[in-house]
Amino acid sequence: MEDTVLEAVATTCTQLVRVNIGGCRYVRDGIVTLAKSCPIQFLRVAACPRIRDHEVQGIACGTSDKLLGLDIGCVSSSLSDQGLRELGRCTALQELTISTAKNISDRGVYEMFFKNPAQIGLLPGNLACISILFYLDQLFIALPRLH
Asked: Taking the complete model, does pTM exceed 0.85, yes or no?
């Protein structure tokens, strides 16, 4: 699947709430268009190698108050703490899966919750399930401070 297909879907299927495009190798900007056009609640973009910080930011902006579940496992190795911090906008998020993101640190996970104290962001109490499958040296030190 390519971006042009997703952009066409975004303009014709404007009521999509569940999207699974896991494994699509050529998707990038199309997912941002889809996130802005549809009331997506569950999104799986796992194993989409072109999903980076920019796309995660677009997903967060487009779905900030609707997104309940997000799987960004095995996406681009250029996904970083900056992209993860943007997910703090997703105030309804209940499930998050992240894996093999070498440029995400424990700091990025922490700042996803506390990006800006004045901003209402993702609240630790809302998140029912978080799967982080990569090495974070300080994760277990940062997460207890979230409560």
From this structure: no
